[in-house]
Design brief:
alpha/beta; Rossmann fold; 8-stranded mixed beta sheet; 12 helices; 8 strands; 44% helix
Length: 292
């Protein structure tokens, strides 16, 4: 079992690292601030670093918890772990149970969406609200994403992910509106210095097509179990993958939804952290006022 041997720059990542020994080995997470808890779930190939701008803005009012899945960020890379979204969801569920989180808001982006929805279904009694951005929770139907998932599963592209860190070097730059600073890009590279360390990234790329049955279970159970949970959509309107049309599916399953449209591409936390944080704060304040 290996642990990444890098230290984030405290100027960019001014947080205290915490650790949880669970079903996925030693998992790194942040736990910043006090108040009602907000669980921030990242996608592929990012880690808790992606939420730094959101956490800084929300931790004065809320308890912000941001884990790294096994094989991502500062978490361990267990040799017997398969890096599937189903396994990640079990790790996150174990962390939520360990921390005893109640009145919980789950924020999901990219793969954090279906992972967060699985958690919400399994721990619905702990749930207060959901915030989803540029994500999904059903078997992929859009032709462009099915084609992308098929391409990512080919041996050639899998080798590029392992050998050249393709997902970090290409997907992140095209997923933001403005060029990221060199030191920011370096923090996305740091967790994946070797071919073996990129196994988690490569597997989640394959799971776009291979997780259809798992996603179908979420899709089937969600309307009856979560349909009345308050939902905020914080959506990057210039995302070429998860286009604004994806919001229609959320609206059809959630009776209490609202949307905030962001001038952002896929990585909304990089393009619009202030706008995203403000939308979450306003949403939770309005929900609290309505429930009183």
């Amino acid at each position: 079992m290996t642990t990444p041997a890098f230290r984030p720059d405290p100027r960019l990542f001014p947080f205290e690292s915490r650790w949880f020994d669970g079903p996925g080995g030693r998992v790194h997470y942040l736990d910043e601030g006090e108040g009602a808890p907000i669980l921030l779930l990242h996608g592929n190939p990012t880690w808790s670093f992606v939420y730094r701008g959101v956490i800084i803005r929300l931790r004065k009012q809320y308890r912000c918890i941001a884990p790294d899945y096994p094989g991502f960020g500062l978490s361990e890379h267990p040799p017997d772990y398969r890096y599937t979204p189903a396994e990640h969801a079990e790790v996150i569920r174990a962390l939520v149970q360990e921390l005893g989180l109640e009145d919980l808001t789950v924020v999901g982006h990219d793969w954090g969406g279906p992972i967060g929805m699985r958690l919400a279904l399994d721990e619905v009694d702990r749930l207060r609200a959901l915030v989803m951005g540029n994500t999904w929770y059903w078997p992929l139907e859009a032709v462009h994403l099915r084609a992308f998932g098929w391409l990512m599963s080919t041996g050639y592209v899998q080798s590029l992910i392992h050998k050249r860190n393709l997902f970090v070097e290409k997907i992140i730059p095209v997923g933001v509106k403005h060029t990221l600073a060199d030191e920011v890009m370096e923090h996305y590279r740091m967790p994946f210095p070797t071919m073996d360390s990129r196994a988690g990234v490569a597997e989640l790329a394959r799971q776009l097509t291979r997780s259809a049955n798992w996603l179908d279970e979420i899709d089937y159970a969600l309307p009856d179990t979560l349909g009345n949970v308050p939902l905020l959509l914080t959506w990057g309107m210039e995302d070429l993958a998860f286009t604004p049309a994806f919001m229609d599916r959320f609206r059809s399953d959630f009776a209490r939804s609202r949307a905030v449209r962001l001038e952002a591409k896929h990585f909304i936390q990089e393009d619009a952290p202030a706008e995203m944080s403000g939308a979450i704060r306003e949403f939770l304040e309005e929900d609290r006022s309505a429930s009183q």
